[in-house]
Amino acid sequence: MAHFRATVATYTNMHKLSAFVTGLCLTGLMTHVCAAPTRPVEQFIDAYKKTYAELGLGGDLDLSYVKNIANLLQHTDVVQQHRALDDLDRQFKSLDASTASACQHLQLQQIAFELDLNQQKLALLDKYLALGNQAVLSDKGLASTIMGKEWYAYLRKSWLTMDTTPEALMAMGQAELDRALGRYRTLQAHMGYAGRDKDFAAYLSGPDSRYPEGATPQADYEARQATVYRNLHKLFLPSAVKPPQIRQSDRGPDFPADGYYEPDQTTFYFNKGKDGFKRRNIDWLLLHESTPGHHFQHYYALEQRGCPTDLPHQFYSAYAEGWGAYVEEFGSELGLFQTDADELGAVEWNMVRSIRVVLDVGINQLGWSEAQAHAFWQSQLPMLPSLAEREITRVRNWPVQAITYKLGAVMLRQLRAAAQAREGASFDIRVFHDRVLKNGAVPLAMLADMVQGSEPPQATVPAFK
To answer: Residue 438 carries which DSSP code?
Structure first.
């Protein structure tokens, strides 16, 4: 594993200047010097695509760690994958990428990440299988599973698509929780309930917070979507992305979300939960799932403004969900959040996503008990008691997945701030967003280089170094 990572480091060091120029090409600053494709690089990329398909790699991760690990144990031909990935590793080492095109450099960086991730997987499987009958996969949580911390490290890399530490994630989650709580208290005061938590809770759960029985938010979603499209020019370059359809889902209260997006149907579905249709969820949910969230993100990349997006890879959840969470902060700029209550809905879910990060690390890395997890929730979010059990169970059964929202959003926010500081008066948020979206989904490990055109300063993303 260390040897393979040294290979990736060697590639990076040998082509530092080339990678810098590549970044400028990808950001559109030096397209006149971008080299044409070279045959050896093209052959290697084709060989990678073929091998990746033959091995059956990629696709979506299962939310359940039990199913994820069981699938790896059942469907991974360890010997075959070692042989095939080692062969790709040898080709990668000998590859002269100095004259590769900008898009090929991007693909090579992505291949390096995928190879590294799969080598980490194979090393873990080798160790786990060597335990024989001692290898026990518990359904009580990773803390109860043999090699639980090592599985947690692999799942962090798989879901978050970058190297992180539990300590950094815990610190980031707590900082984001404190930030969201501060905004919650500010809105509470604006709404006339400063220091009156019980009265505020009663108001928020009252009949005015929901649509009347028999009514749906269909018309409100459509009106808000039209408002967003009228304001997109403030944050995005012109595009041909059309609005999605908006329909009510028939999944009902057993489905654990108030809305979702189906790209194959080009449709945003809103769903009726156990408490009916909540008014506070309309704005942020539309931003996250429709535009400029998942729908816009998906179709913007298909406009082929950037590099081809045909390289096979696993689903990059941290990029997709991070973007969806990131754009929720632009409600006001896009004509939404017309009332404090509208914004409060987004803030409430920001608090939930933030506390998930701390709980995830606490439960899966530090071995927190059920009682410890509930005590932490009560100490931080006493205003949302009904969600505690569900969210604690979620991070125990689906480790790391819930972190993708916050990590991706925080990284995008930090990269935007770094770009503003670097570019000064010439900074254009529309161009920044174009750099993020035009090449499609990428690992977070590549995002900084892709949007900045060079390696960011060490202080740019301190929480994840």
So the answer is: T
Which DSSP letter does residue 280 get? G
Rounded Cα–Cα distance for residues 315 and 268 (Å): 20
Q: Examine the domain organization and report whether 191 and 62 are in the same domain.
A: no
Q: What is residue 187's three-state secondary structure?
A: helix
- Strand runs labelled E in 390-464: none
Number of other residues whose CB lies within 10 A of the CB of residue 415:
21
Q: Is residue 157 part of a domain?
A: no
The structural domain count of the chain equals 2
Rounded Cα distance between 165 and 227, Å, is 41
Q: In what order do the strands lie in the sheet with 245-248?
A: 245-248, 267-270, 259-262
252-282 pLDDT per residue, tens: 988 888 999 999 999 999 999 888 999 999 9
| 205, 251: one domain | yes
**Residue range 377-418, pLDDT digits in tens:** 999 999 999 999 999 999 999 999 999 999 999 999 999 999
- Which amino acid belongs to residue 165? T
Cα 9 to its chain centre, rounded Å, is: 25
| Rounded Cα gap, residues 299 and 252, in angstroms | 28
Tens digit of each residue's pLDDT (9 = 90 or more) over 311-364: 888 899 999 999 999 999 999 999 999 999 999 999 999 999 999 999 999 999
Cβ distance 132 to 91 under 8 Å?
no
* Domain identity same for 172 and 44: no
Which of 408, 263, 262 has its CA nearest to residue 271? 262
163 exposed, middle or buried (CB, 10 Å; 0-12, 13-18, 19+)?
Answer: middle
Q: What is the dihedral of CA 357, 363, 367, 369, to 10 degrees?
A: 130
| Closest alpha carbon to 238 in 441, 438, 449 | 438
Shared domain for 224 and 301, answered yes or no, is yes
